[in-house]
Amino acid sequence: MSVSASIAIADNSIQMARNLSNISLILLSTMFLHGCEHHAESSEVARPPATKAGGASSVVLNQKAAELSGIKSSLILSEPGQAEIKTTGEIKAAEPNVFHISCMVTGRVIADKANLGDYIKAGQVLAQVQNPEVTKVAGDFMHQLHQNEVEQKQAQAKLTLAEKTLERVTQLNKEGIAPQKDVLMAQNTRDMIVIELQGLKEHVVHINSETRALLKQYGVQLSEAEDIRHMPTSSPLRSPKAGVIIEKTITLGDVVDTTKPLYVVADLSTVWLDINVFDKDIGKVQIGQIANFKSDSLPGRIITGHVSYIQPQAGDNKTFVARAILPNPKALLKPGMFGQVDIVTKNLSRGAYVPDSALQQYNNESFVFLDRGNGNYQKRKIILGQRIMDGYLVKSGLEVGERVVTSGALTLKAEMLKSSFGESE
What we know:
Helix content is 34%, strand content 32%.
C-alpha cells in the first residue's frame, strides 16, 4: 500500500471518530433534558397508591401546583342560619283595626261629607241622617220643660200666698187674736211650698241631662253652652276612630236603616299580609319568622314584618295562608295590593353544611377532599341530607370544623382518577 493511501485512510478514521463524538454529545444532551423534564413533572404531582383504610384516596401537590390549580379550602361550618321561601301575598286591612259605622234609625241622608279613600279623624262627622227619634226626644223635652215652667209658676203663686198668710197670722198672734198653732201651721205651709219650688227648679237640670244623654245615643252632641231647645232634628254619623274609608254604601238622598253599615273605616297604621304557602313549604313556616314584601306599586321598597298566624288547613286552591303584620306609618300599603314575598325560614336540624363547589360525584358516590395541610388532600365519602340554598346538609362522613377544598376540587378529582387508572394498568 502506498504512503498516500495510508494517509487517506487515517484521515477518514479521524473524521468518523469526530462524527461519533458529536452524535454522542447530542444523545447525552437529549437524555439530560428529558431527565430534567421528567424530574420537574415528578416534583409537581406525586401519585401515591390509594390507601385501603376506609377506601380513601389522596393527592399530593406542591404549593406552586396548588396555586396554579386555584385550590382553596375552607372550614366546614354548621348549616346557614336562614333560607328563603319565595311566594306571593296580598295586603289586607287588619280586622281588629276595621270598624263599621251604621245608622241607629231609619231615615234619609240629608248631608254626605266623606268620600271613599278619605282619611278621617276620630269624632269627624261623615253624614247627617233625618232622625224621627231625635224629633221625638226634642218634643218630649219641650213638653216636660213647658210643664215644669207651669208648675213653677203655680208653686211661686202659692208661695206668695203662703208668705202673706204667715205675715197676717203672725200679726194677729201678736195682737192676741190668733193662737200660736195657727202661726206654726202657716210657717209649715210656706216651707212645704218652698221645697216644692226648689224641686221643680232642680227637675229642669235633670230634664236637660236626660235629654242630652238620649241625644248622644243618636250621635247628637251638644256643648253646655248650646241651648238644648234649639237641638237639630237629624243624627250625625261620626267616626269613632281615625282611619281611611275603605267602603261606602250611601249617597245624598238615600233612605238608610240599621241593617247594614254605611261606612267601613280602617286604621291602616299596620296591615295584614296574607301569604300563599304551598304544601311542600308549610312545614318550614313558623310564627315569628321574617317576611319581606315587594310590590311593583312600590318600586325599590321592601317592607318587613313577622309571621303572626298560619292557617291550620288548606284552602280551596290547595294552598295555605300565613299572615304577617306589616308596619304602614305612611299608608303606602293599600288593601288589595299584590306582590312578592320572601319568608326567611330557619331549619331545626343543626349539622355540617357543604357547598356545591366542594361536592364531587363519581360511581354513585358523593365525596369531598379534606385539606390535611402541606399539599396533602384526602378524599372523604359523605352522605348528603337536605338541600339548603347552594349546598347540602351532611348526614354522615363530615364534621363541623374540618377543612374542605371548596375551590379546585375538580382538579384533585382528575388527579385522583389518573392515579387510579395508572395503578390499574
